[in-house]
Amino acid sequence: FLVSDLRVLVPALALSTGLLLSTGVGVREAFRRTRFVLFTVLILAAANYYLHSPHEALVVFCRLAALVLLAAAVTATTGISAFMDEVTRLLMPLERRGLVQAADVSLAVGLVIRFVPEILARYRDIADAHRARGLPVRPLTTLVPLIILTLKDADTIAMAIDARGFRRH
Q1: What distances in angstroms separate CA 72 from CA 32, 38, 51, 52, 82, one per listed residue?
Q2: In whole angstroms, what is the distance from residue 90 CA to residue 100 CA?
Q3: pLDDT digit string (tens) for 61-112?
Q4: Predicted confidence (pLDDT) per residue in 138-149, tens digit
Q5: DSSP string, 11-35
Q6: Left (φ > 0), alpha (ψ -120 to 50) or beta: where does 24 sit?
Q7: With 70 as the cut, is the pLDDT of residue 167 above it?
Q8: What is the DSSP letter of 134?
Q9: DSSP state string for 73-118
Q10: SS3 21
């Protein structure tokens, strides 16, 4: 976080908001895609307000919200394969130095981008099933099945990756 000047961060937030809306996503869909992360950013800003100062809270909010909205704009306009290819290309200098396996990192990033929305949807499905049965929605009663289902998916994905011979080593 090189910049803490609100004269830079506020326009950056406005620019990233404009970029996201220019993708044709629409305000309602943009909010739907970013609301959970922006809520977390708001909590962090509130903690900074309480622990530091209003100025610091605004800096944290503008900085992180701009990054979230920019990331949402990128994911709205870029397919997973193209994104993974670009991450691989950007990491090639580090791979040549033996620091990372570029393809593995890009695969991990691509899987996160691809499956986080599915995990959130699965959580909503589990919570809805609890409500339909008249059960209270509690973290433990929803997280355990969510973790089990996610681990089963991870196993299936790992087998598919191995079957396709994606990993070189």
Answers
A1: 11, 11, 29, 29, 15
A2: 11
A3: 999 999 999 989 988 888 888 888 988 999 999 999 999 888 888 888 888 8
A4: 888 898 999 999
A5: HHHHHHHHHHHHTT--HHHHHHHHH
A6: left
A7: no
A8: T
A9: HHHHHS-HHHHHHHHHHHHHHHHHTTS--HHHHHHHHHHHHHHHHH
A10: helix
How far apart CA 108 and CA 5 sit, in angstroms, is 33
Q: Position of tokens 């800003």?
A: 45
Distance between CA 122 and CA 146 in Å, rounded? 7
Distance, in Å, from the CA atom of 108 to the CA atom of 104, rounded to the nearest integer, reads 6
Question: Which amino acid is residue 120, in one-letter code?
Answer: L
Cα–Cα dist 157/159, whole Å: 5
Start-to-end C-alpha separation, the chain:
36
Nearest CA among 148, 167, 61 for reference residue 106: 167
Phi-psi region of 37 (alpha: psi -120 to 50; beta: other; left: phi over 0): alpha
Q: Do residues 94 and 116 touch, judged by C-beta distance below 8 A?
A: no
Both structure tokens of 46: 């509130």
- Give me the pLDDT at residue 117, please: 80
CA–chain centroid gap for 156, Å, is 22
Question: Comparing 39 with 154, which gets the higher pLDDT?
Answer: 39
Residue 14 pLDDT > 70:
yes
